[in-house]
Amino acid sequence: MMLCAGSTCLALFPNDEQTVKHEKVNTVGMRHIAFRVDKFNFNKAQIDLTNLGKSFRVLEHENCNSIYFDDPSDHTIELTTYDLIRER
Question: What distance in Å separates the CA atoms of residue 75 and residue 66, rounded to the nearest whole number?
Fold first, then answer.
C-alpha cells in the first residue's frame, strides 16, 4: 500500500505471516518500511551506512534501485530511488 502526500510517499508492505498477539490487541507484523529518496541521498545513504559500519544490500529492480538495512530495533528499512543509478 502506498500513502502519499504530494510527492512524498510511504510504502507499507504487509507481513505474510499470521496475525501476532501483542498483549490484548491483535496486530499485523511488518515486513519492512520503505522511503523514496533522490539519487543524491541514495548515494549519501550508502556512504553514511558504510562509515557507520552498518551492513546493507543494494538491489536493482526493474524501475528503481533500493538499499535494505536494519534499524537498531531490527526493523528492515528500504531506501528507494527511481533516479536509476548504474554507476557504483
Answer: 16
Q: Which amino acid is at 86?
A: R
How many H helices and E strands in the chain? 1, 8
For 36-77, write each residue's pLDDT tens digit: 899 999 999 999 999 999 999 999 988 899 999 998 878 889
CA dihedral 19, 69, 80, 40 (to 10 degrees): 160
Kindly state the cell numbers that stand for 30.
511488518
Compute the Cα dihedral for 87, 55, 50, 78 and give only its sign.
Answer: positive
pTM exceeding the 0.90 threshold for the entire prediction: no
